[in-house]
Design goal:
heterodimer; A: 113 residues; 84% helix; 0% strand; elongated; B: 233 residues; two-stranded antiparallel sheet; 30% helix
Chain lengths: 113, 233
Amino acid sequence: MSRQAHGLRAWLLQRFTAAYIALYILVTGVWFLWQPLHSHAQWQAWLAAPLPNLATALFIVTLLIHAWVGVRDVIMDYVRHTGVRVSLMALVALVLGGTGLWSLRVVFSVVGQ
Amino acid sequence: MRFSIYRYNPDTDGKPWMQDFDLPESEVRPGMMLLDALLLLKAQDDTLSFRRSCQEGVCGSDAMNINGRNGLACITPLKELRQPVTLRPLPGMPVVRDLIVDLEPFYQQYRAARPWLINEDPEPEVERLQSPAERERLDGLYECILCACCSTSCPSFWWNPDKFLGPAALLQSWRFLADSRDQATDERLDALDGPFKLFRCHTIMNCVEVCPKGLNPTRAIGHIKELMLKRSL
């Protein structure tokens, strides 16, 4: 493919991540209704199992990508000044990136405990 | 009937203002359209300015914001309007005078869509033929009258009229992408690439809501995205 599909790529990413986010919320929602967790230890045990751990890590990544595309869209729509736009995007990237790293650290820290 | 109409003459007014008009009930006839009322109001005050031409919803000249919704005055029944009928120029466009706007930003984007057939084959002696099915694909696309009701009701077009093509121009993009006789699919898709020209559409669908011809630019934009995706795989 010859074209640089920047618009198309963001649009597709938003849709694919939305599908995974919806699936994760639905599956975990039903799961917790069926088998409620009542204590911190139970939560840790649930999250330490490989499948929930990987699924949750993937959920965090997709959520951050989805948020990035959405917030980037809002900034592109409303902020006309290039300097302000780039600064805002950098700030959002920093906050989302930091949040992501911290969340993933929490999720992976329960493995093997 | 009471009217509140946006007035602005850049030569004499410091800023826009709303003028109240009153149309006696004796002058309101059954089946009267808003444009008929505007013509009567202009008889009261001949400085009131608006565009109109065919008076039957074909030329698209008298597009304006009617009680907060874009539409054509000539096909808007007067009786259905809440009073006072508030009339403003199409939103987001520079005002030339009163209800007349400068549509140049709109036409610029229309030109950017290259709304003509691109076919490098030698010109045939008769017309370039299409099957009935191929012709049918153009239904709902070619009927656009370029009144600008859709693009000027689109928030994405308000914010980026210089970068986002807007629903009217994108409807025409799809009209030629969908045309079996057109050979410039790749060039057209390349021209629409990037985050602004096509992808500022967030499926708000104000365009579909206001189109006086009942067309669906949002669906056309969806088809362009689909085609772009197919071509990129």
